[in-house]
Amino acid sequence: MGWIDARDIAESAAAVLVDPERDFDDEYVLTGPQALSYSDAAGIIAAETGRPVRVIDVDVDEVAAHLREAGIPASFAGSLAGVEISVRKSHAEGATTSVQDLTGRGPRTFTAFVHEHADEWAAPSRNGDPLGS
User: For residue range 65-95, what is the model confidence (pLDDT) as tens digits?
Assistant: First the structure.
């Protein structure tokens, strides 16, 4: 999967909106500069934060059950879980040049993003909450 920084999405959208010559029928697939699996992303997070990170593969029914437990309606939870499994399997699909084409600069790397936020992610958890909230 081509993990992408939200700032790259915003800058790409702005570039489309401010260009009077832009054809709004064009489609842009926005991605980061490289395709990474969940395991690749976890490895980068672990390396940048110094915290162990692991990926646990679960099947589509488990994903759907967790989504339902989080309050998502059953029919949507099943659909969303299917998309998640599909994304997981297609991680090797390549990155695009759309951010570069639209903004004139390449997208930020996942490693750079994690590095920018490593202090936040490396902070000890509060109240036993792994997210620190």
Answer: 999 999 999 989 988 888 877 777 665 567 8
Task: Evaluate if pTM is beyond 0.70.
Answer: yes
Q: Tokens for 92, please give them.
A: 């090797």
Please, which residues have CB within 8 angstroms of residue 59's CB and are 6 or more apart in sequence? 85
Write out the H or E segment, with its range, that includes residue 57. Answer: none
Alpha helix (H) residue ranges in 90-124: 98-103, 110-122
- Domains within the chain, CATH numbers bracketed: 6-122 (3.40.50.720)
Per cent of the chain over pLDDT 90 is: 50
Neighbours of 94 (CB within 10 A): 10
Helices (H) and strands (E) in the chain, counts: 6, 0
